[in-house]
Input
Amino acid sequence: MEVEGVKLYLARHARAVEAEAEQGRPLSEEGRRQARTVARRLADRGVAVARIYHSPKLRAAQTARILGRCMEPAPVVMEADGLLPGDDPELWAARLGCMGCDVMLVGHLPHLGALAAFLAGGALAGAPWPEAAVLCLHREGRRRWRALWTVTADERG
Output
């Protein structure tokens, strides 16, 4: 059963250090700043989720933990499959249909962009997605989602 009114927050990981090991790249100091800035902006909007799911990559896990620290009550933050750059967006589209609470997914491009476009009927295809940006989507009916707003680390955001 799909629950209308559920919100989904799609978050791109913040900036990572340049390194050879793709999987183990931590956030850079700038990336930690980006994530803290976005976390404060989400808190100012009253964003709270039950769970934050992140990809297995270190930079996504670190971003998820920083974003979760500013939410009350504190969400469960956990690793999940299907959030890597090349994963099929239909996997999470199907999972989201069964969720009755607000959740956040922290991952990577191009997967997040493909998932947003899939959920919103292609309306978001090709939209820019800076590091640490969070897109809020609202479920309005059976498999129909609408983009509400985006928060970025940019000073103008």
The mean pLDDT is 92. The chain is about 30% helix and 20% strand.
